[in-house]
Amino acid sequence: MSQLTDSLDEAYRKWSSSAAAVLAKSRRVEVDELPGDAESLLATTMADGLTIRPLYTRKDETAEPGLPGEYPFVRGADPHRDVNVGWRVTERFGDGETRSAAEVNEAILDAFVNGASGLWLAVGDGVSAGDLAEVFTGVYLDLIPVTLDAGTDAVAASRAYLELRRTAQEAPVAARPTAATTGSLGLSPLTAAFSGRPTITDAEATGLAGELVDSGQAVRAFRVDGADFATAGADDSLQLALTVAAAVAHLRDLTSAGISASKALTQLTFAVSADDNQFATIAKFRALRKIWARVADVVGKREAGAAITHGVTDLSMLTQRDPWVNMLRTTIAAFGAGVGGADQVTVLGFDAAIPADLRTSGAQFSRRIARNTQLLLLEESNIGRVIDPAGGSWFVESLTDDLAASAWNIFTEIEGLGGYRTALDSGWITDKVGAALTARDDSVAHRKTSVTGVNEFPNLGEKPIERALADDSAVATGTPKLARVGRAFEG
């Protein structure tokens, strides 16, 4: 072993010497005139302060993270994941619908025929809880994972969905519930309290979860929406910490209501943003599973600590200027989420950052591109056929560990303040997210962070949307606190 270590050290010294020589030549100075060693000069600092080194070697090898479906679930939540399906291609419907329930149903079935395999349904703004029977006609509710986003209509919508699911007899065979087929009522009162989304009370949400616990249905009550923090400007470490802190608060509510810890853990799913930082996105999903497994271990139920995740392409990375470039961003994001082990992935339309009445492309075209982005990754590139393809990469494993450690430190700070609710009520969370947003915007303004089509290679002939019309709160998914990365350069 010592010989191997010596050999690696020698190889690294040779690389460092060669890299320093190249840097010196490019800067027209001598090696000893460089302001630092090659590793520090080539290192990259992420928004959350983590350092990415230029080279990772066998010396960076970490302990085996376990097999998929085994604690700490870094390599995946489900040991029975169907590699012929990969992750679920989840499409969102219902935002600002003016169509009838029958027309929405027709659009949903068309999406399934053309490759979608999951459904995320907004209820309350166009689609009502009373419409669900018609909207779900022909949908195999025990095979298709359905996620609701019903806001203040969540109680009525949840009960209607659960009743339809109970009476559904469409499936030709009895399917074993898996992480990929688990539905969600989409209840997110704690993250909605930050983002400003309409929601039901914590007590109502906990009550619905209590009804679900012994129902035998493969449906979870809570969807802890970490994407809300990302769209408001949170960096990856902060997003993970806030997400886990909110989830722990829900866990406490459930156990206080008399639900056992093992059953309470089965009532939570997680939404995680996926952006165009490919490796950070991969590591983020893996790190969340690691952190949540640790929480489950702390409460003595490590076997129930598999986090079910729904990756959603980050609205804040999308630009209104040159929106076609967003297709590239969402492709990278979907790749990162899939490789990172997301159970479901939603790719929002490339024009999702533009208010619907100002878009120049048809809604069907945008949907088709978003859906086919994932189908190309799954069916052409076959990415879903390998469970945790990034596992074992010295870089990805190190980044996963670093990100998990950073997020855990912030999480423990929140717990020290008294938990998620106290941190939110005191303004601590708003201040932290605001500081992260300010740092990000400053980086973009000084072109330390490049946004293609905005502060790099802009289309100077493009007529920008008038700022008075470009209301960010009116874009897809109705996110109130959306802080897009390119907003300062638009309008």
Structural notes for this entry:
It contains 16 helices and ten strands. The protein has helices spanning 2-27, 38-42, 101-113, 132-135, 154-167, 189-195, 202-213, 227-231, 236-256, 261-265, 278-298, 326-339, 363-380, 394-417, 420-425, 428-445; strands spanning 44-45, 51-52, 88-93, 118-122, 146-149, 183-187, 219-225, 268-274, 309-313, 344-346. It starts with a helix and ends in a 46-residue tail after the last helix. The strands form two sheets. The chain has an eight-stranded parallel sheet. Strands 1-2 form a two-stranded antiparallel sheet. The chain has a domain at 88-408: Methylmalonyl-CoA mutase (TIM Barrel), CATH 3.20.20.240. α3 links the parallel β3 and β4 (118-122). With 491 residues, it is an alpha/beta fold. It is globular. α9 (236-256) packs parallel to α11, α11 packs across α14 and α12 crosses α13 (363-380).
Secondary structure topology:
Layout: H1 2-27, H2 38-42, E1 44-45, E2 51-52, E3 88-93, H3 101-113, E4 118-122, H4 132-135, E5 146-149, H5 154-167, E6 183-187, H6 189-195, H7 202-213, E7 219-225, H8 227-231, H9 236-256, H10 261-265, E8 268-274, H11 278-298, E9 309-313, H12 326-339, E10 344-346, H13 363-380, H14 394-417, H15 420-425, H16 428-445
Parallel strand pairs: 3-4, 3-10, 4-5, 6-7, 7-8, 8-9, 9-10
Antiparallel strand pairs: 1-2
Shape: globular
CATH topology of one domain: TIM Barrel
Contiguous helical run count: 16
Can you give the mean pLDDT?
Answer: 91
How far apart are the first and last residues' alpha carbons, in Å? 60 Å
- Which residues form runs of ≥5 with pLDDT under 50? none
Q: CATH superfamily assignment of one domain?
A: Methylmalonyl-CoA mutase
**Strand content of the residues, in percent?**
5-15%
What is the annotated CATH architecture of one domain?
Alpha-Beta Barrel
Q: Write down the secondary-structure element order.
A: HHEEEHEHEHEHHEHHHEHEHEHHHH
Range of helix content: 40-55%
Please give the number of β-strands.
10
Category by helix and strand content: alpha/beta
CATH class term of one domain: Alpha Beta
